[in-house]
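Title: Comparing notes on inverse folding

I've been comparing how different people in this forum approach sequence design from structure. To keep things fair, I'm posting one structure and asking everyone to reply with a full sequence. Here's the target:
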């Protein structure tokens, strides 16, 4: 009888081929929690949480969302460039190190605002429970990043494999890259025109494309390569094709353009690398919705702001006492323009990171490319630097390049 009972149990309880929802008891720890879902510090793994909530971007709605973010980014870059140029060259408060420090520190603001909104929505929850609710999905998303699983830098690998520690360390390195790019921007802006600076910074599109191949293993489409080439040609036409344009020799804007343009080229390389590394270290490899990717993107961008605020202030003291950049407290009028520049810069750089995550570094970098023509028009309206024929020709090439890239990104790849 016992032998017969043993033989019966040797057979499967379900018919062959019938799916089972049974869960192995070995997966659970002593508290009854799924051990596979708690193998990482910071909350349950993405395998259960994200897959249930994942919804890939919808075609038309996603395109409209990307378009709105792109438009806001371009406007933000224009306002930031012109406001910074105004208080530096017109009002005389030319402090590139201080400007960069304040602008990059402000990258923490969008995330702080987001967290305040979330806290208001969940104000009935205890703070500890609310923080777990907010940080859990972020930890889940980090575990789906390819670099976290396979290509993590040596310093970011820990015994516990903490997702948040990975983000803290990689964003620290990314802050160095962004600082090099930002400092080049503000230094160049003190010597060249906003149009030249914006044009040359658009070369970051080329560097973003170049770095994407080895770092992201991306294969650029033919039309994307053509678009990048046209954008580079267009920006150089704008930057160097207006040699016949007449400028007031007594005007403070646009002096020492060659020196400023060289500094801008260094910044363009660094910014292209920043975009690619942000995609590599702060973007899930799973197809999740824009809303699900937003918390991680905002936090990653905010960390660069926190690092800048905490680490770089001794540099301001150093350049002050070395008489390299003597800090002077701004007047009320200058302070107003600084606020405008800082807020617009914070919004545009953060949205640029969002675009990089939603699409790719090459498409995201075209926010800079598109701003060149609008900055040239702003130069004309604000500073009296009339656009030459080269500005319109180069702007036309940039628009054609953007059209090709948009088609290749949203249409050709789907085919």
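Reply #1:
Here's my take.
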């Amino acid at each position: 009888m016992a032998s017969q009972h043993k033989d019966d149990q040797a057979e499967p309880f379900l018919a062959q081929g019938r799916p089972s929802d049974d869960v192995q008891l070995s997966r659970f720890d002593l508290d009854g929690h799924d051990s596979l879902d708690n193998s990482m510090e910071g909350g349950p793994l993405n395998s259960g949480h994200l897959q249930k909530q994942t919804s890939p971007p919808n075609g038309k709605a996603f395109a409209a969302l990307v378009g709105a973010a792109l438009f806001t980014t371009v406007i933000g870059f224009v306002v930031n460039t012109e406001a910074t140029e105004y208080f530096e060259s017109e009002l005389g408060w030319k402090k590139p190190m201080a400007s960069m420090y304040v602008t990059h520190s402000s990258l923490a603001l969008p995330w702080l605002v987001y967290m305040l909104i979330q806290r208001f929505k969940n104000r009935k929850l205890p703070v500890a429970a609310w923080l777990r609710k907010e940080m859990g999905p972020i930890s889940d998303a980090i575990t789906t990043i390819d670099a976290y699983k396979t290509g993590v830098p040596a310093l970011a690998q820990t015994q516990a494999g903490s997702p948040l520690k990975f983000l803290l360390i990689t964003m620290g390195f990314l802050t160095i890259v962004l600082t090099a790019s930002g400092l080049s921007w503000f230094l160049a802006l003190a010597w060249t025109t906003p149009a030249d600076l914006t044009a040359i910074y658009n070369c970051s599109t080329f560097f973003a494309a170049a770095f994407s191949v080895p770092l992201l293993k991306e294969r650029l489409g033919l039309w994307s390569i053509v678009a990048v080439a046209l954008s580079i040609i267009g920006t150089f036409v704008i930057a160097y094709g207006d040699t016949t344009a007449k400028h007031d020799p007594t005007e403070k804007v646009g002096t020492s353009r060659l020196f400023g343009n060289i500094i801008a080229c260094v910044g363009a390389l660094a910014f292209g690398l920043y975009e690619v590394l942000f995609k590599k270290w702060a973007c899930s490899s799973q197809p999740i919705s824009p809303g699900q990717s937003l918390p991680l993107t905002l936090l990653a961008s905010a960390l660069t702001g926190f690092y800048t605020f905490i680490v770089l202030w001794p540099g301001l003291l150093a350049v002050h006492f070395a008489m390299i950049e003597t800090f002077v407290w701004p007047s009320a009028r200058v302070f107003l323009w600084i606020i405008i520049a800082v807020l617009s810069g914070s919004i545009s750089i953060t949205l640029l990171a969002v675009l990089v995550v939603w699409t790719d570094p090459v498409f995201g970098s075209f926010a800079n490319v598109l701003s060149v023509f609008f900055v040239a028009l702003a130069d004309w309206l604000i500073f009296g630097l009339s656009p030459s024929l080269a500005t319109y020709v180069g702007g036309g090439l940039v628009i054609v390049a953007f059209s090709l890239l948009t088609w290749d990104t949203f249409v050709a790849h789907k085919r």
